[in-house]
């Protein structure tokens, strides 16, 4: 069935086009360059996987609560709106909220697919082109996995949100290669890692947890890629150019923080939108999530050298400045370890089934 028939809300068209302003960069320097990037390239080659076989798609989602998430994660949980709902209406809220989040993952992964293809085209260094080429395949696989989860299991999807759409357009519409890196590899991928981690660790459904765990294994390398490339580049920029990038980081982070209100879901379900958004803004769950979504971004922004006072003040105002001391490399290594643990459990299940 066409995705158009899965969407909970109408979409204006079957696609979205705008001027990507890309400048193609060839290089005639074929010598080996940065060891760190070449090591990531080797990992990217070795850690390719097949979404059709690594994930056990015979598993189903629970119709009552697809990813088996605690209802306390729902921002209107415990309010008079929630208390007035029937059991059937609560099932619908769970289904739509979860499908909406996975839909934004899917759309974001397509954005990453296009952004990484653009990086291959525009980045001046061969080692970065090599690694970005492996990431193009990673992102295609992620779109495939989330598409299958939505189409075959949720049987429901949501269009891209205005917030994600505008952020993708700002990064992909800039002709400078480092702005594509900064938008996609640092900001959107960093945000995605925090969102994926919540579902990986809190979902009690093994299929949903595994999809997010395996995607995170790849995304950890992607953030490391942006970190290594930009850490070398930004110290070369003048003060005004760095200030421009810092301004972009601040605006983008505020934008991402304030767009998590599930507006489209409340509209689709016919709930009082203003009341729901007010409850979202005030909920303890959302306050916690809004600080933690930057747990992967803050240490990386500091590491690449975009750490002026304006950036620090913004993260302090968001309640996320404490993440500046986080060991980003250790988090990325843990993501890889967790994915391997999922593989080990799958092997044990297979062995038990064959016994």
Uncertain runs are: none
Amino- and carboxy-terminal Cα gap: 38 Å
What's the structural domain tally?
1
What is the arithmetic mean of pLDDT?
A: 90
Task: Give, in order, the helices and strands.
Answer: HHHHHHHHHHHHHHH
Number of helices: 15
Q: Which structural category do the helix and sheet elements fall into?
A: mainly alpha
The CATH architecture? Orthogonal Bundle
Helix content: 55-70%
Radius of gyration: 20 Å
Q: Which class in CATH terms?
A: Mainly Alpha
- CATH homology-level superfamily: Ribonucleotide Reductase, subunit A
Strand residue percentage: under 5%
Overall geometry comes to globular
How many E-type strands?
0
In the CATH scheme, what's the topology name? Ribonucleotide Reductase, subunit A
Tell me about the largest β-sheet: none
How is this structure best described in words?
- The protein is an all-alpha fold and 355 residues long.
- It has a single domain, classed as Ribonucleotide Reductase, subunit A (Orthogonal Bundle).
- Helices cover 67% and strands 0% of the residues.
- The protein is built from 15 helices and no strands.
- It has helices at 35-46, 51-54, 80-84, 87-122, 126-154, 162-172, 177-202, 206-233, 239-258, 263-268, 273-282, 284-292, 297-303, 309-317, 328-354.
- α1 (35-46) runs parallel beside α5, α4 runs parallel beside α6 (162-172) and α7 (177-202) runs parallel beside α9 (239-258).
